[in-house]
Amino acid sequence: MKPIIIANWKMNPENMRQAKALFSAAQRTVLGGGVEIVVCPPYPYLAPLYQLAKKVALGGQDCSWRDKGALTGEVSAKQLKDIGCRYVIIGHSERKKYLAETLGMVKAKVEAALRGGLSVILCVENVRELQMIMKKIKSSKNILVVFEPSSAISTQGGKRITPENIATMVRAMKKVTGKNTKILYGGSVNAKSISAIMQEGKVQGVLVGTASLNAQEFSNLVKESVL
Ligand code: PGA
After folding, report:
1. Tens-place pLDDT, residues 41-81
2. Strand segments (E) across 101-177
3. Ligand 1 center to 154 CA (angstroms)
4. Which residues are catalytic?
5. Which residue in 31, 102, 187, 227 has a CA-CA distance of 20 to 30 Å to 134?
6. SS3 for 73?
7. Strand partners, 87
8. CA 213 – CA 157 distance, rounded (Å)
9. Does any ligand 1 atom lie closer than 6 A to the CB of residue 207?
């Protein structure tokens, strides 16, 4: 199965020129179709980057829990889909930390994203969170789960989680979602660490923040993921 590498650019880079350069570099790293790459840039860059997209899929970094209406500042899953997105990240720990996003909101957003025809990149910190969110969601089809402990994120301390611990978590999470759901890992993944995370951690992909903002580092990381 192809590893899936998701680049979460967060609120970077600073301008469209840099976004286009970074996106073009990411496209050049897709080696003979051996990996699947999803780039999740800030909203304003999505539509212009879609015009350049050939080998790389696009995803939003969040979406609304509603389909339309009077919600200033929100963007719907259907709007993301309409401009070419195939994916959306939901439940990132930075949204919980800085914007008080609750698990109830995360669940409603997952449902909205699925209604809107997007695949969900669902970030969770532990099995309990996953269980609470998946309660009442009818099917885990079109949901990729990312095990991402906030303390492991590079800008929040970058605590190292061993590949053995990741593998244990993958097994526990698959018990909740069913064995066909892809479980990914996120938190300080870089070109040096990806190989052990993929192989010994038994994940089917990774969510990458900081290392996706440097074209050379990202290219090395993609190469290491398929070795
Ligand atoms: P990091 O970010 O790779 O910089 O740790 C990952 C994330 O927050 O999604």
Report:
1. 999 999 999 999 999 999 999 999 999 999 999 999 999 99
2. 119-124, 143-147
3. 6
4. 92, 148
5. 187
6. coil
7. 59, 119
8. 18
9. yes
